[in-house]
Amino acid sequence: MPTTAASITRAERAIQNRHRGAVLWLTGLSGAGKSTVAQALARRLFEMDCRSYVLDGDQLRTGLCSDLGFSDAARSENIRRAGELAALFADAGMIVICAFISPFADSRARARALVPDGAFLEIFCQCPLAVCEERDVKGLYRRARDGQLAQFTGISSPYEAPAAPDLVLDTASGSVDAALASLLLLLRERRIVHQS
């Protein structure tokens, strides 16, 4: 059967939802606070009657991307799949909060290209490597330093920080409440959610 145009437009979904569909892409090192901020924002948006969903790197690695390793090519494919999924959610009118290390700038640019202009917001969770290593709740940095994990971002594999993110969050010393305030302000300024 031939592909047909969507019968419900993005504008119609925005009117029904009372907000626009969008992708908030949180990027940063492991332990930078991406998942914590993403879950807190999802809770706040829920309280505001906004339709949102969190896509988390760990979550996708156990399901949709369970067949992928951690080579550069596999990391790029992981983010390609995540970007495609996020774009579908955003097209359905949801605010998708993505929490992925996503170490390569070109992979993040490809994810951005999947959604209309203004509907992709790159959020850099800026946290020094030393602080991320102190947090290390999963013991990953210790294992990487001990040579048990090859190609670990920040240790034996590079992380390309965003050159011009839509927002930088200081997740080393800033509070979750401060991060939420900055994110909500950005969502209002970009007219994704209403001022009220």
Automatic annotation (TrEMBL):
Question: Is Membrane tagged as a keyword?
Answer: yes
Per UniProt, where does ATP bind?
Answer: G28, L29, S30, G31, A32, G33, K34, S35
- Any idea which residues are catalytic in this one? S102
| Catalytic activity, EC | 2.7.1.25
Task performed by this protein: Catalyzes the synthesis of activated sulfate.
Keyword Membrane assigned: yes
Record-given protein name: Adenylyl-sulfate kinase
Q: Read off the InterPro entries from this record.
A: APS, APS_kinase_dom, P-loop_NTPase, Sulf_AdTrans/APS_kinase
Give the top-level enzyme category.
transferase
Tell me where on the tree of life, at the top rank, the source sits: Bacteria
Q: In which pathway does it act?
A: Sulfur metabolism; hydrogen sulfide biosynthesis; sulfite from sulfate: step 2/3
Molecular function GO labels: adenylylsulfate kinase activity
Sequence ranges assigned to domain APS kinase in this UniProt record: 20-170
Q: Which residues cross the membrane?
A: 85-105
The gene designation is: cysC
Give the catalytic activity.
Answer: adenosine 5'-phosphosulfate + ATP = 3'-phosphoadenylyl sulfate + ADP + H(+)
- Name the source organism: Massilia mucilaginosa
Instruction: List keywords of the entry alphabetically.
Output: ATP-binding, Kinase, Membrane, Nucleotide-binding, Phosphoprotein, Transferase, Transmembrane, Transmembrane helix
Family label: Belongs to the APS kinase family.
